[in-house]
Amino acid sequence: MDWSEEDKTLRICRQITHHRGTLVFAPPKGGTKDDPKDRYVPLDEDLATRLREHMRVFPPVEVTLPWLEKDGELVTVRLMFTTRERKALNGNYSTTSGRRPWRPSASSRR
């Protein structure tokens, strides 16, 4: 995502995904090389303040990954959210040890 502190709009212009076992940058979901389908999200002042504070505590980190495919052109961007090792986030950080993080409640399993 791209955002400047003066801006009230967050631009989602890439995602991190896998191609043949390698993390790569790609257009947002549904986008293509020719039509990336960037998304624009308005921010209210409270969320902008929280984002500024996050960036103060955890400054954005430059990360270089290939574009679209394992052997694609290398692209370097500053990421606002990274692993504790200051690398691009991957699926391992959105699940708990590879398991689904959300389980059905006990009442829905009956």
Brief synopsis:
Helices cover about 10% and strands about 25% of the residues.
Give descriptors for this structure.
110 residues, alpha+beta, two-stranded antiparallel sheet, two-stranded antiparallel ribbon, 6 strands, 27% strand, globular
Description:
The chain has one helix and six strands. The chain has one domain. The protein has one helix at 45-57; strands at residues 9-12, 15-19, 22-26, 39-42, 61-66, 74-79. The strands form three sheets. A two-stranded antiparallel ribbon has the order 1-4. A two-stranded antiparallel sheet has the order 2-3. The longest helix is centred in the middle third of the chain and has 13 residues, at 45-57. By secondary structure, it is α+β, with helices and mostly antiparallel strands. The N and C termini lie far apart (42 Å). The model has no long low-confidence stretch (mean pLDDT 83). Helix content is 12%, strand content 27%. Residues 97-110 have a biased composition (Low complexity). Residues 88-110 are annotated as: Disordered.
